[in-house]
Specification:
about 190 residues; mainly alpha; Hypothetical protein af1432; two-stranded antiparallel sheet; 10 helices
Length: about 190
């Protein structure tokens, strides 16, 4: 019991990891815990649109653990380019430490889910990655491109970073987003 409690209390630190995007209609930035919760609900709501049959409970668990490493590493904006191998190595070390707080079997189960998400090779992982990539886009579309403009993120970079993962994991969602991204480009919601 104590190991589980220690793990859960360690996860509280995810609430303090600030991301680069504001909440819809709010002045403050979201945190990584809020992001994980929201994409788990997004995936649950979109399950019927997955590119293949998915185990939605597994997808939700994957989404709830995918950013836990940010407790030690901080958040990296999805639209950032370069140094991804270093970031992922640091995240692996972080999740190894954090999942190590749990009883061995539980920690190993979460590690399997985390690695599956990172590899993106299964239908569950592709769908989970689609939800993860879509949420910053949806928030930017709701906020007139706030983080794109503030961080100099171009339309081309957004499409290059999120297009394929969303299209592969949830084609209907990518169909929906493509036209909205074009509209946002016409409105000047992207950085240089």
């Amino acid at each position: 019991m104590q190991q589980i409690i220690d793990f859960i209390l360690e996860l509280d630190k995810l609430k303090a990891v600030t991301r680069k995007i504001r909440l819809r209609d709010a002045d403050r930035y979201e945190n990584s815990a809020e992001h994980s919760w929201q994409i788990a609900l997004l995936a649950s709501s979109l399950a019927a649109y997955a590119e293949a049959s998915v185990d939605i409970d597994r997808v939700i668990r994957m989404l709830l653990v995918h950013d836990i490493g940010e407790i030690d590493t901080g958040d990296t904006m999805v639209f950032v380019e370069g140094n991804w191998e270093e970031r992922k190595t640091a995240e692996l070390a972080a999740v190894t430490r954090i999942f190590g707080l749990l009883p061995e079997a539980q920690g190993a189960e979460f590690m399997v889910l985390w690695k599956e998400f990172e590899r993106g090779e299964t239908a569950d992982a592709r769908f989970a990655n689609a939800a993860d990539r879509a949420m910053p886009v949806l928030l930017n579309l709701a906020n007139a491109g706030q983080s794109w403009r503030e961080n100099g993120i171009s339309y081309e970079r957004v499409v290059a970073r999120v297009g394929l993962p969303i299209e592969v994991g949830c084609p209907a969602l990518w169909d929906y987003l493509q036209s909205r991204l074009e509209e946002a480009r016409g409105k000047g919601w992207f950085g240089a």
